UniProtKB/TrEMBL annotation, chains A, B:
GO terms for cellular component: cytoplasm. It comes from Paenibacillus pini JCM 16418. The keyword Lyase does not apply. One of its GO terms (molecular function) is biotin--[biotin carboxyl-carrier protein] ligase activity. Its EC number is 6.3.4.15. Residues 69-260 form the BPL/LPL catalytic domain. Belongs to the biotin--protein ligase family. Biotin binds at residues 116, 187. It catalyses: biotin + L-lysyl-[protein] + ATP = N(6)-biotinyl-L-lysyl-[protein] + AMP + diphosphate + H(+). Signal peptide: none annotated. PANTHER family: BIOTIN PROTEIN LIGASE, BIOTIN--PROTEIN LIGASE. HAMAP family: Bifunct_BirA (MF_00978). This is Bifunctional ligase/repressor BirA. The gene is birA. One of its GO terms (biological process) is regulation of DNA-templated transcription.
Amino acid sequence: MKKGETLLHIFSQHPETFVSGEEISRSLSISRTAVWKQINKLREAGYEFEAVPHKGYRMVSKPDAIQPVALIQALGTSMMGSRLKVLGSTTSTQDEARALAEDGAPEGTLVIAEEQTGGKGRLGRKWFSPAGKGVWMSLILRPNQPLQDTPQLTLLAGVAVCRAVRKMTGLDAGIKWPNDLLVDRRKICGILLESAAEEEHVRYCIVGIGISVNLDETDYPPELQGVATSLKIASGTTVDRTQLIAAVMVEFETLYELYCSQGFQPIASLWEALSVTLGESVTIKNIYGDEVHGVAAGISAAGALLVDMGDGRQVPVFSGDVELKR
Amino acid sequence: MKKGETLLHIFSQHPETFVSGEEISRSLSISRTAVWKQINKLREAGYEFEAVPHKGYRMVSKPDAIQPVALIQALGTSMMGSRLKVLGSTTSTQDEARALAEDGAPEGTLVIAEEQTGGKGRLGRKWFSPAGKGVWMSLILRPNQPLQDTPQLTLLAGVAVCRAVRKMTGLDAGIKWPNDLLVDRRKICGILLESAAEEEHVRYCIVGIGISVNLDETDYPPELQGVATSLKIASGTTVDRTQLIAAVMVEFETLYELYCSQGFQPIASLWEALSVTLGESVTIKNIYGDEVHGVAAGISAAGALLVDMGDGRQVPVFSGDVELKR
């Protein structure tokens, strides 16, 4: 990208105007064919050019890349995002964050990627993470608490992202247990909480957050169309990802401080207020093959979903997939 | 160690006899000083030499190194130890095993080191792991179970090692909750269970096992003398580490199969039979600063220690340090 950067420099000197291929060729001491190749490389990176014979190239738009400097300015947090790693393409921000956590990275370290080639979803699924279109990030937490309390953090993460999305877009986002975000009953965000423990003590948690921000319907593979949506599709406008990341970090920090000082109860209340699951008939399947059918009644003190079985029993469910019956 | 290996070859051709420095110098085409340096390197690795002026060097003893080939022959298991990584010196076999587990290493993968330079104990402590004197190893498990059941594996590991030690040495080893092994009320083994989870599902567990095998009293730093002991100190004889590792793996495999097919109850019964904690007045401190005082009464279905509080209440304790009052 050394040559690509110089090419960008030329266009930044000629905003909105055409620059001839010959002029670029001369400035960079490369052939006309090499100029064309460099332009195409930039197109692949999300830059758009108008090319007109005898006039040359004009830069029409830049990609909406996440800029670390702009993000740092936007953050306004003291801990969350206090250490940043912004990557172009990576296999999975969860794996990047885990490696950092094992190396001793502090609480609040945030890993962001423009693209994930092996993005991970819950229950071993893949997470569709195309370049430049979403917020794919992983946050390191080091809560001083026993392992059995981690389901509470799963719910806290859902509340944080839901509040940020609502504030940024005005969309009526709701939480499907445990922490999927839905708009118009379609998924716009998935959250994956991974944890590492020594016996019963949490060493660290990694909160993976995937928000489908500026995807168009045609960006989705067929199997996701109708199931997934994006903030852009739902709101009709492009959303600034840098500002969205900052908003999520602000909400996360506020809620995490509340959680550390006052415990889980206020988080549970906020979760219940944003839930689209409570009061619904649900079927929950977990990866061990167990199924629970009943009515989602509330959140337990430990962070489990309480399911009314219809026979007076209330069963706590910690993990699984919810199917809402309507 | 290329030259060291050739030096070893020379001594293996002259068992029990002296080889002159001049002869070695000639054979390896190195200076007399270089020979002396090579001899010292081997001494550091645990070889012992007698050096007599005008006669040369005689190898007195070889280190009792763990030999992968001999171990594979001794194992007799189908899963535990089916993949082996035997290291000379490493920071921590837990870290090595974790890296392998993240790379997809299968259940039963075993990492062994002759020496750990940063051996880890429970509750953030260090574990003294000098070269060639102990069994320092980490076993990867991938149990298909929820996170809340991992305390059961902590106890299972203690039972497996205790049974292996008893069979190999005849020593009256007992388990201090949760899984320290004591002989003559001094510690001979520590076990550390680390786990990685995705939400409530265990991705893998790493069982770290440190057995002080052939340490002499003088091998211990002052702060461990009187607190720690070794199989050699307690039994009066050197124990074959390769055979001991094989014995632990056999016991582990048997118990793990029992656990996977019949659940925790039979493991709990075996643990209770080997326990030196049950029936004792105990104080248990955890890392959050909580303390519980009472009489250790039994093991709960979830794997917690049940403590009789003396007022009719029985409290389950999952993690902490036990102090036995006598």
